[in-house]
Amino acid sequence: MKYITSQLVKDHVRRCTTALLTLLSTIAAAQAPAQTNTQQISEAEYGLNAAVLMRKSVANAPLHQARVSRAFGSMTPAERKAAIDAYWGRGPSTEVKLSIFDKFWNYVDTKFAAFQGIDVDWPALRARYRPEIAAGVSRGRFAAIMNHLSLALRDSHTIPLDLLVNVFTVPEPGVPLLGVSAWEFDTSGACLTAQDDGSALVYSALPNHPLGLQPGDRILGYEGRPWRELYQELLKEEMPLWPLWWGTSPTSFEHTFVMSAGLNWHLFDTMDIAKFGSGQVVHVPTSLMPGVIFWGFCSEQMDIPGVPKPTYFGNNFNDFVRSGIVQGTNIGYIYVWAWGPSTADDFAAAVDQLTQVDHVEGLIVDFRFNTGGFLTAPFRGLGALSSHPIPTVSMDERLTASDHFPMKSIFPPSQFKLDFDKGVGSTHRVKTSYEGPVAILVGPGAVSAGDFGSYWAASLAQVRTFGKSSSMAVGLPTQPALGTQLDLGPDWEATVAETNTYRVGAPQDFLIHTEFPVNERVWLTPEDVAAGRDTVAAAALGWLQQQIGH
Fold first, then answer.
1. Domain closes at, from 254, 288, 322
2. CB-side exposure of 529: number of CA atoms within 13 Å?
3. What is the per-residue pLDDT for 420?
4. Contact present, 277 and 231 (Cβ < 8 Å)
5. pLDDT digits (tens, 9 = 90+) for 238-272
6. pLDDT tens, 18-39?
7. Which residues have a Cβ under 8 Å from the Cβ of 355 and sit 6 or more positions away?
8. What range does the domain containing 528 cover?
9. Vertex 375: Cα angle to 519 and 325 (nearest 5)
10. Which one of 94, 119, 253, 341 has the minimum C-beta count within 10 Å?
């Protein structure tokens, strides 16, 4: 049995970090068209910051001061708190911690543009946490305070991270971290997705998995307790987090934490698994795990015959678009996993090839996993599917620093209008369009520009959407193009959502914290993943075949 071990992944990511940061710096420096009132919107609305986007958090920190031998799930809350305090030590001075807290709290107070749709008393949170910090807290506790302060805002773009605690320390036995979301890499040697009953469905797993996990199995919880109950309990205790992002819409927020069941095996002695094959529930010791195992790439998508998936890491971290024709059909399929520097061209070329050259009868565009990137990258490809210009959304920002709710326009509807394809490569086709039916697959793994691309695609007349709500983090985070910067110091990364979005014709009905309007809510099922079948793609194929008369 060959394991893809923690150290192998750490070594790989260390080698990739320099290239990744160079890439993201290039994105961040991208020039964008001037807007009214001299405002500019950066095509480099890369959603998640450089430290998080590619999950470089697998490069484990060298600081292991107080690893414990007992599972955290068997400890009392007081014992868990003591372990958190001991693990990362005291950290910077109280004065530095207060400065970081005040800077983030004040920035949110004056700039955060998504107080709509949530029930949060922001001043009360300051009154609660600041005296605790002033009295002296450990580095781990301070990171947890900052994590949970932002968690109250329920926004994927609004996350402050202590790089040592929240990014460079891997959740593994003896480490007091609560893993959040399991896209890209999962430490359990499997890839999991959320089920409505609160269990986490295994859709891919290491062959001969040490805990016996197989596609179709469901992790119910640990120590005989449901995972949904356990994670809510640990959130209330305010454990520090190992986040990629958490969902912004209510259902994607829940999805984020439910899918994390396998990511938190290190906290417990026994995993409760509902076996697909036998229907039995087994209780397996987590001590059988040889350590952290990263297996595959977790995108909540099954293989589609005839269509290769992107690699994500290839082409200098820019292999985000792959396409093909679904085996046995005349239906095209396009994956888009992020909106990188070349993705606008790659996506438009894929649309052109399938619709104008191959003349497919129907098309599926799979946005279920998309970590964002260049904000306007979807336009050319989506414009090639339109027979006329389509207005989509507008953006507002805070009107004043002193009131959380009044808003003013920052980007008008003209900035986000889907228009005809302006040409692919040297062909320069003008006003090409596609009249066939289009299925758009969406899910919580789409965030930031991934949200926007999904939402804009749903504006097309011939489209039907399948899946679950995307994250709905449809705002722009702190970035130079907005004339803003949030610097919490060299050991921190942080962004805050500084705009909110509304559909054209519905001003003040802001979309952050709402649900994506999915036409057909469908998700992976145990029966289908055990058979290697993608439930969401199958539903879309069925609809397309009805539309084209097959």
1. 288
2. 26
3. 64
4. no
5. 999 998 889 999 999 999 999 999 999 999 999 99
6. 333 333 333 333 323 333 332 3
7. 332, 363, 384, 385, 432, 434, 436
8. 314-384+420-474+511-547
9. 55
10. 119
